[in-house]
């Protein structure tokens, strides 16, 4: 399978971190044009990844830009104390991210919650919108009375095309043109390449939202080119294709055998020689005609989505408003 | 109390029918500049009301324009068969209304569901949006394949200012400018002057939505002047002020005594001499300091709202698309 | 109107405090057999009321027993800090109540959430059940491993007769017989005599739940006689009759005029002479044929119910388990 | 791998049909003591399966008894007309099932909706309870006035042990002892061995619900032995283990290669020789330490669950009451 095909397939993940892992798996060495740095602290892994140029972008199939990934493998355990620490970390990383990309402390923000209220794993965006603190109306109606330490924040959930008949990007564009924010922050539920990242990973990126990304079928993106202002995307994988689960697990089986000094060629036959995407194509070929290649989500999705929406809303509240203490961010959210 | 004061107070009702009743009660004879015609059939009362000129508008405190009110006193009984008949009636009246005000069969429609998802009596608009059939995306993406008998319909629920930080009218304006519909249909929950109208009355009007109307605190209207295109408002009273209940009931008590040949002056003392709005002011004066003048809604509001949202969505689907049979409109809604 | 009729009507309120106020209004002096003591602190008013004997019971139309009423007029403002203080107060008062009526620290508790999930103002009980900490299964399955400071608590929401076809008291009786708790705590939404008490008042009583009380139409009670074990009822008024609002307000109007030295006889005519229940009967007579005497609830009921359910669940968690700190009770609830 | 191990593993599926398929795959010929007959009509496949004796029970790891499985591969497409046909089929099959096992037309029924309201894929039982028509209270309170063609039906949703602290079977037992139904019908969400059966298959069985079956962790069963009356279980698979998806797909891949005349030994190596359960154990071994062996459900679960709950409720209403026409069952459900 050629590099080109690989890139074509790589687009399948919305996470830059996964795209990089896939690219590395194909090569096994650092990728020119892609810088990454990982820190771990108390069960929270933060990876800062920069795609610096076209070469890096081509290599991993992701746009030039800044990506921060916060991975918390233990997040699905429902540990309240961990959730609070993650909210604080999201707040700190998001604040640093804003600074790094040059968004000032008084820049006016429009938060956009993409997705569908009525489909639980796609309801992340609307749930965050419901929980963030909005202030724009105070700035508009009584600017003199807004306490220091707050900035203008508004928030909308534009709905999905199947319900509205309008692409969400068009709705956002109309609202941006009328309300003139300086920056858009878009929250979106994503499809992951790995079951273990579902509801445990948060990605922040300044590269916008591109056609076909996220759970819904977006045909138009939500980018700086379209909106005329910077857009920061916060994404959380909440679903995974059945085929992805199969493919990943087969790879894990091979690694497992290798790590036990097994003869993978003997055990796995020609499958062992298949490249990742070749095997994925095979898996899809088998599942597709039977209509089995569903997007699936963990059974406990109702609780997971609510927890992560609270974490993100708390993190945004604390990072957007200096008056909100980032050490105790959860208190400001419902 | 002067006519002017009366008018000032009359604005308190969002229903033209109630405004007219109030004005008549003050005068007792037909109001110049206001035409009204009422028909009843099988428990459904339809009143077509036209405010023809400034004189009529001043007299009842409502804008010049067309108003249709559908009253169904039995609607709160949960009778499925009656609900289906009401949906069919809404469809027929709405279709006739469109024709009367000159909206053509291919005019592109944007349905706007005003109100707040999370406040049950204010959730009418969003619930209708969720249940109407949208088609605009088919017209945009594959216009050749849309079956005859359909027109372009889109639908949005812009949220409320307390959640978004943006006036809903600004959001709608932005979406209208970008998506270019020919007509807006706005659905809104209203406050009634009469407990018996709550969840039993549907008003259709071509006069737009004006500041302060509906349940939420709208500061900007949603009018032809602002949007640049005609706007039809569909409103349902879902709440009533405690003070209104008291005031109305006292008036009913007086009428009750009169109808039994009682001496109302003796029984009601000076209260009997008070004009309606004077008494209302007194009631409010008593309730306000105690924080008692709440907006209230019937206990069964969850079911009522769902039923009426289905009726309106079914009625809209059948009246907007010729391909949908207005004799069996309920089948097309969830 | 005779005293007897008055008592008959007095039963209409589920709150002993209101029953006592009504009885006093009829008499104007302390009621033999009824002791009451009221304390206020920081906007929370606690009244401990004891109906000591048959004479007291007849006078106010309430069973012999202990009643504690916690009134928080500011509770509807949505103030989180006040909510936390109320939860702590509920915990303290409930703990004291248990001690006073002789419920020991290891007595096994069954919490029963009466009411209907799908009718917001009647959903209080089920919502509390969802939020209390249950421990009985740990005691049953691994008694050696339960940490000290906890007792056995279970919780059920039996549903309403319209949904189950079974009286909730029969369901509870069956569960009690099988699971053998020592005490039942039943949570129920009530109808109030006063709009200002809706969602601001919590009553704790050891007299059980009697036929006809609460929002639903209970035909069988939930009493010590039926269950064979003590039952403590926690009730919150969440609805009020339209007729009650009218009647109360008319009384307030009269008092308002008196306090301004007005001549109420002149202003209110014969109405002024009517006794409270006579007037209520008149109001009902007027409203009933029109189907207007609805049970109503404030527009914001969704949020109010959630807030109060959290307060009660937090209060119960802290008072039932010594290991949970009653100074920070809210942390243990969702 | 021995037969015994196989049986041990076979218990993992709640569907008798799947258990039989697994057993056949191990043997390849009819199983003594197990009779099965399959009919298909318009996309609905009905299999009647009888486990006649101990030999059959041991062979497939399922209790002696009657099983009817209704498979509708197209059910996830959201086709309303198909849903109505399935409801009618469920009604017919259920009516025939009742007759076959000797449940008379006036036998009193208690419907039990097992599962958890707040976990969407486990909410099937409570949703069915909410939508079935209950009549027991009419029979209890005014037996003379019940129209002919109805029988006594009650319905409860006992909740799950994590919320109540009580095993659902204990709650049901208490209610059965007190309300004395003749038959229990229990609705439960199941785990499937095959992703394609999730939300497309309905199983009816007269063998009760056994410890460990369904989604929750039941430790006590719900059987005729425990309840003293017959119990019919209606189950729908709504979740599947990630490991099951992987294992099934690998088997499908092998079959796919075989059907294309590929050399599976060459392509799959030793994996090809592994028995189904050996491979599953390997898959689990790889996934488990990483916490990846989640129970997953399709992304669209909210809609699927609602649709199937309506189908089952409609089917039950029509089969339990002669007065309800089984050709138009959907009309009686919400």
Using brief descriptors, characterize the structure shown:
peptidase activity (chains A, B, C, D); EC 3.4.24.78 (chains A, B, C, D); homotetramer; membrane (chains A, B, C, D); Peptidase_A25 (chains A, B, C, D); 9 strands; disordered N terminus; 334 residues; transmembrane helix (chains A, B, C, D)
Determine the structural class of chain A based on helices, strands and strand pairing. Answer: alpha/beta
In the predicted model, the low-confidence regions of chain A spanning at least 5 consecutive residues are 1-11
Largest interface pair: A-D, 47 and 47 residues
Instruction: Determine the number of helices of chain A (DSSP H or I, runs of at least 4 residues).
Output: 13
**Number of strand elements of chain A:** 9
CATH class of chain A: Alpha Beta
- Oligomeric status of the shown chains? homotetramer
Distance from first to last alpha carbon of chain A: 50 Å
CATH superfamily of chain A: HybD-like
Q: So what's the overall shape of chain A?
A: globular
Task: Kindly provide the radius of gyration of chain A, computed on alpha-carbon positions and rounded to a whole number of angstroms.
Answer: 20 Å
Largest sheet of chain A, described in full? 9 strands, mixed
Strand percent estimate of chain A? 15-25%
CATH architecture of chain A: 3-Layer(aba) Sandwich
Mean pLDDT across all amino acids of chain A: 87
Transmembrane segments (chains A, B, C, D): 227-246
Catalytic activity (chains A, B, C, D): Endopeptidase action with P4 Glu or Asp, P1 preferably Glu > Asp, P1' hydrophobic and P2' Ala
Pfam family, one (chains A, B, C, D): Peptidase_A25
Family (chains A, B, C, D): Belongs to the peptidase A25 family.
């Amino acid at each position: 399978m050629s590099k080109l095909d690989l890139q074509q397939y790589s687009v399948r993940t919305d996470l830059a971190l996964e795209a990089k892992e896939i690219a590395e798996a194909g090569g096994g060495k650092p990728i020119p044009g892609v810088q990454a740095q990982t820190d771990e602290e108390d069960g929270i892994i933060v990876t800062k990844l920069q795609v610096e140029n076209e070469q890096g972008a081509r290599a991993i199939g992701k746009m030039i830009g800044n990506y921060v990934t916060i991975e918390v493998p233990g997040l699905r355990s429902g540990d309240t104390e961990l959730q609070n620490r993650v909210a604080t970390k999201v707040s700190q990383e998001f604040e640093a991210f804003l600074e790094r990309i040059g968004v000032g402390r008084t820049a006016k923000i429009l938060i956009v919650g993409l997705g569908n209220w009525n489909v639980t794993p796609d309801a992340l965006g609307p749930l965050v919108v419901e929980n963030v603190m909005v202030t724009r109306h105070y700035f508009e109606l009584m600017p003199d009375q807004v306490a220091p330490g707050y900035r203008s924040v508004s928030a909308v959930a534009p709905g999905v095309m199947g319900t509205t008949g309008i692409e969400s990007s068009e709705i956002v564009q109309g609202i941006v043109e009328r309300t003139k924010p300086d920056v858009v922050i878009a929250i979106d539920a994503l499809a992951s390449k790995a079951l273990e990242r579902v509801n445990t990973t948060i990605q922040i990126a300044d590269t916008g939202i591109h056609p076909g990304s996220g759970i819904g079928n977006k045909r138009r993106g939500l980018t700086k080119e379209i909106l005329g202002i910077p857009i920061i995307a916060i994404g959380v994988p909440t679903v995974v294709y059945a085929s992805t689960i199969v493919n990943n697990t087969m790879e894990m089986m091979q690694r497992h055998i290798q790590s036990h000094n097994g003869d993978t060629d003997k055990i796995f036959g020609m499958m062992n020689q298949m490249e990742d995407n070749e095997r994925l194509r095979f898996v899809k070929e088998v599942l597709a005609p039977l209509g089995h290649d569903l997007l699936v989500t963990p059974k406990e999705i109702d609780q997971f989505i609510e927890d992560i929406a609270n974490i993100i809303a708390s993190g945004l509240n604390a990072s957007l408003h200096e008056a909100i203490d980032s050490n105790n961010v959860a208190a400001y959210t419902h």
